[in-house]
Design brief:
- By secondary structure, this protein is an alpha+beta fold.
- The protein has two domains: about 140 residues, Immunoglobulin-like (Sandwich); about 80 residues, no CATH class.
- About 20% of the residues lie in helices and about 35% in strands.
- Strands 1, 2, 3, 4, 5, 6, 7, 8, 9 and 10 form a ten-stranded antiparallel beta sheet that branches. Strands 11-13-12 form a three-stranded antiparallel beta sheet, covered by helices on one side.
- α5 crosses α6.
- The longest helix has 16 residues.
- The chain is elongated.
- The relative contact order is 0.14.
Length: about 280
């Protein structure tokens, strides 16, 4: 049991030691043409994802610029706003941008969890923009399948599959530390400062190790043996003297019942740990 508990604590410290890395693009980005006026290639729309974001980038080329983008992403085609005839309504798209002066690149980052998207899921994207090339503005759509094949306007949508990340560990992504180092108070740039700086981000809901019963059973056994005078009163001195089973490190405060015999150090094994 002690070995299992040590392994759980070690796993928690390893997780804490991981330094959050910059967002990494997962898999291979998808690129489609940005079509203006039904036939002119005005640029491209590129879609990729990180572990937590969908990234959609509009870019123009050959003298084209953009003054507006309107983007819809959905789990099904029916999730893209359309009118009664089935034609899309860009003004109702969730993600928009307007630009004055005009620009040649626009990126939208969309939270995967907020949209309910998961790895391996195929999603539907409609990407519209207003573009210019030396004259007036005209509409452009990311190339794909027309909403209305035979009737209606020429607006299009395409699909993209959320890709899993093949993580590559880079120098500096992880660090190791002795248990003594993790137990130190924060001073300067020592391990205790690293622990305090990253604990809340690594364990936003706190950290719970083990189950609630083991320390409780051991505490009760100590109390009974102390009352009975077992071991010549040595155990009684341990319990009454406030030196029961060790709790978590003093820098990881735990919420738990205090020993009924006055031990203020002992905590249940099911202790939720929080950053100072």
């Amino acid at each position: 049991m002690k070995a299992a508990k040590k392994m759980m604590v070690l796993a928690a410290l390893v997780a804490l030691a991981a330094i959050p890395a910059a967002a990494q693009t997962c898999g291979t980005p998808l690129q489609v043409n940005l079509i203006a006026g039904q036939s002119n290639v005005a640029g491209a729309v590129t879609v990729s994802n990180t572990s937590g974001k969908l990234v959609v980038t509009y870019s123009t080329s050959s003298g084209w610029t953009m003054s507006k983008t309107q983007l819809a992403v959905a789990a099904s085609l029916s999730g893209i706003p359309t009118n009664a005839s089935g034609n899309p309504i860009p003004g109702q798209f969730a993600y928009k941008s307007e630009h004055s002066p005009v620009v040649t690149s626009v990126t939208h980052e969309i939270d995967l969890d907020a949209e309910g998207f998961v790895l391996g899921q195929t999603i539907y994207i409609a990407a519209q923009s207003d573009v210019q090339n030396g004259g007036g503005s005209e509409g452009a759509w990311a190339q794909g399948t027309r909403f209305k094949e035979t009737r209606g306007n020429w607006a299009m949508y395409f699909t993209y599959t959320i890709q899993a990340c093949a993580w590559t560990i880079q120098p500096g992504d992880f660090r190791t530390q002795t248990q003594g180092g993790w137990g130190t108070a924060c001073r300067g740039q020592n391990p205790g400062c690293f622990r305090d700086a990253h604990f809340a981000q690594t364990f936003p809901l706190g950290l719970e190790i083990g189950g609630p019963s083991r320390w409780r059973r051991r505490r009760r056994a100590l109390q009974h043996r102390a009352r009975d005078g077992a071991d010549g009163g040595a155990l009684g001195r341990v319990v009454r003297g406030g030196q029961g089973p060790p709790g978590p490190p003093r820098h990881l405060r735990a919420r738990g019942a205090h020993d009924q015999c006055g031990d203020q150090r002992e905590q249940p094994e099911s202790a939720r740990l929080h950053a100072p």
